[in-house]
Design a protein that fits this description.
Phosphorylase Kinase, domain 1; Transferase(Phosphotransferase), domain 1; 5-stranded antiparallel sheet; globular; binds adenosine-5'-triphosphate; Kinase-like_dom_sf
């Protein structure tokens, strides 16, 4: 923090910009402006300097001290290969955040800023991509301050006995494919999609931990490509040097199937076993299905097992034909035959989501005027509204008080409809709503009705949790790279499958 005289500004700004924070407050003649720097660089300092000349610079100072002591670390919520993640509270404003503490040391801020995770995340602004709020380097340790999410998809799956409803899987995957379409259009691909990297809060899903794999391959000592084997595309398994966003599509096919069955689709115990597991399900590739794959295999002296494979519909007996069709196209041997994320959003499996999505956009335009946010953001807010309503309803059921009910109703109307009014504007337009959208709105209306007519009572839940099922990893040990890493059952929960 400090007053800046214009002559010294250039120097000072350079100094500031290489500090560990992004946001700056600029005081210009009693008028405080906030400059948010995309990525600190000299270029930014020069352009800010230019804009300041015209607004009579008085002072430039840090909006936030770039120190970790502003955050109180509460609990470790995740431990990955590269960092441990903590739930933390910003002591200044009470905001709950996630703090990722990187395991490697970083000796300069420039080194941190060149990390692909930082570069790519700073450029991503999408409701289904986890937000990177700050980057702090303190005592050579790098911390990412991110928005906090309640859990990841793997944690949701491991406590389940009954498969998720297809509508839940559809909603989650629709959100992730939107994030992927956004990201792929901007020239980035994730390369490490897995249930642990898909974070959930209420009904909203966000992509996390992306861009890292690329950084790993380019920054020694992390020289080898690392991603979780069960979701690794065949071209990567066969060591292709030219792969693209189709690797994310493969991973999504495997994740979708796992969500629908609660079992990993290709649980290989080694790279060779991974290919065997794939062949068991989709059959081995041939000249028609993937000629480049045969060349890749030949180059590394690998022979595909001659297996015809079972039908995907047999593996996923309760899944709809649309779900099976989408997963089989995503899990095509040939990356060129996998649909792009934007195409997936048009698939029959997502017809319902698309109708709701369009309805929400239309409804918003009719009730509130032109859209100032993307329809996807609206959809996320809409879902958050519903999730919030059902959460409040459950809370009220558990510990009900008549005064609290009135308050809950008000909060719900405020957050969901933007009004305190007695009538829900969404309900006023329900005649134009497609069937599924109407069902959702009716769900909300039932919740609010129940809240309104609830009597004073208190309930406790006595349901007994069924035992946690184990997902089985395969046992074959062969590996054409001479490695083997069978996973002992106790290690299942962390699923470190990176060979
Ligand atoms: N923003 C967040 N909010 C809440 N939990 C998070 C958040 N980001 C990550 N986590 C949790 O921490 C775990 C590890 O985080 P992350 O994947 O970013 O670390 P990593 O070291 O890159 O892991 P990996 O071994 O997958 O490369 C995640 O699986 C998730 O459960």
């Amino acid at each position: 923090m400090g007053k800046v005289v214009f002559g010294a500004y250039h120097l000072q700004c350079k100094l500031f910009v290489s500090e560990e924070t992004f946001d700056w407050r600029v005081l210009a003649r009693g008028n405080t402006q906030l400059f948010s720097l995309g990525q600190p660089s000299l270029l930014h300092s020069v352009s800010i300097c230019h804009s300041l000349v015209s607004c009579h610079l008085l002072a430039v100072y840090h909006l936030r001290a770039p120190y970790l002591c502003r955050f109180k670390l509460i609990k470790e919520v995740g431990d990955g290969t590269f960092g441990s993640v903590w739930r933390a509270i910003n002591k200044q404003n009470g905001e709950v955040v996630a703090v990722k503490k990187m395991k490697r040391k970083y000796y300069s801020f420039e080194e941190c800023m060149s990390l692909r995770e930082v570069k790519s995340l700073r450029r991503m602004n999408h409701p289904n991509i986890v937000k990177l709020k700050e980057v702090i380097r303190e005592n050579d340790i790098l911390y990412f301050i991110m928005e906090y999410m309640e859990c990841n998809l793997y944690q949701l799956m491991k406590d389940r006995v009954k498969p998720f409803a297809e509508s839940d899987v559809r909603n989650w995957c629709f959100q992730i494919f939107q994030a992927l379409a956004y990201m792929h259009q901007r020239g980035y691909f994730h390369r490490d999609l897995k249930p642990e990297n898909l974070l959930v809060s209420k009904d909203v899903l966000k992509l996390a931990d992306f861009g890292l794999a690329r950084e790993i391959s380019s920054a020694p000592p992390y020289t080898e490509y690392v991603s979780t084997r069960w979701y690794r595309a065949p071209e990567v398994l066969l060591q292709s040097s030219a792969y693209d966003s189709a690797v994310d599509m493969w991973a999504m096919g495997a994740i979708m199937a796992e969500l629908l069955t609660l079992h990993p689709l290709f649980p290989g115990t080694s790279e060779a076993d991974e290919i065997l597991k794939i062949c068991n399900v989709i059959g081995c590739p041939d000249e028609q299905t993937w000629p480049q794959g045969l060349s890749l295999a030949e180059a590394m002296k690998y022979q595909f097992p001659q297996i015809r494979g079972s039908q995907l519909s047999e593996v996923m007996k309760s899944a709809s034909s649309e779900a099976v069709d989408l997963i089989s196209s995503l899990c095509s041997w040939d990356p060129c035959k996998r649909p792009k994320a934007a195409e997936v959003l048009q698939h029959a499996f997502f017809k319902v989501c698309k109708e709701n999505f369009n309805w929400i956009a239309r409804h918003h335009r009719r009730v509130h005027g032109p859209l100032r946010v993307t329809p996807n953001k609206l959809l996320v807010e809409y879902r958050q509204g519903i999730a919030q309503a059902s959460f409040l309803y459950k809370a009220a059921l558990r510990n009900f008080h008549p005064k609290a009910c009135g308050l809950i109703m008000k909060i719900f109307f405020l957050s969901f409809t933007g009004t305190t009014g007695n009538a829900n504007p969404i309900l006023r337009h329900s005649r134009s709503l497609p069937e599924t959208g109407r069902a959702t709105v009716q769900k909300v209306s039932t919740i609010t009705e129940k809240l309104a007519h609830m009597s004073v009572t208190s309930r406790t839940r006595t349901a007994v949790k069924p035992p946690v099922p184990l997902l089985k990893a395969g046992h074959l040990k062969s590996d054409f790279l001479g490695k083997s890493d069978e996973i002992p059952p106790a290690k299942r929960l962390t699923r470190k499958l990176v060979s």
